[in-house]
# Entry
Amino acid sequence: MKKKVNLKLEKEENNLRKRIKVHDSIFKELLDDKEDFRDFIVDFSQYDLEEKDLEIQNKEYRTRLGLRTKYIDILYKIKGEESFIIVEHQSTINYKMSEKMSEYCLAVVESRDKYLKRSRNREVPVILPYVLNTSTKKWDAPRTMKQNENNLYKFPVLHYPKYNVIDINDYTIDELVEKRTSVALAMAFEKAKNIKECLYILEKLKRRKINKKEEKTIKLMAEYIDVVMLAKTKEFTKEDIKEITEIIREILNGKGDLVVSNFEKLLLKTRRQNAQRAKRAGRKEGRKEGKREERNGIIKVLFKNNMSAEEISEKTGIKLSEILKIVN
# Structure
């Protein structure tokens, strides 16, 4: 009996790890985009950078003993300078972050060592380390290494590297949504603790036209919504997620593959609804007509959202000639 319980717990733990991994990858995917990263730095720091000044770097490095390969979440270089920005996303508090960030900084310095020896520029790279904290708890981990760790790392620590923290708990949902950038909106969704707050964000978006940056985040939300919401809290049920998904579709107004991928589901749903109405009314002809009207309505929505008649025919299996009659 104990073995069965342990296996069940192990399975649940593995599923949770997978959810967290996908969940964290949303922020990494956004921050790997130079435009989104630039917006993020301008939104949440005192630095004003241009997208053209950013160069994304190889994030792989070997540990000091060379036994393991590790990765920095986000690493950018400022073009023409020996200046680097590190961002580590944390959805939980890591109380060893000062050691971890020091290792990252050393890895960057060592990666530039050969280049600097060949060049006339002998200055040590300047590194700006950041932690993006999206946990529900305000960040309270030490931001610098202890002095007695100098011998371990063979590096004069002093007060450096001291990392900065961009803490989701320092902002309200309204402040994040009003920034109108992809990462800020992702942080707003992350901050939502329950279905009510999540719907509040979506209602704010519905009342105004979304921009391309916000659209990117909303599409990621639609793709990973079951993982994101269920990983956050038990307060989100499958019914909540279904409701949120429907509103997301409405906000995106049937753009791109989101509607196409759900065409069959939507068509099946409307058929069932009309079949029930027709059965209750006892009108077979009415049922057929209702199905036809619902199908035609969906085709018109797809056509209005810049999808060609040929594409609609290919995706839905309906004859091209029939689609042309409906949309003309």
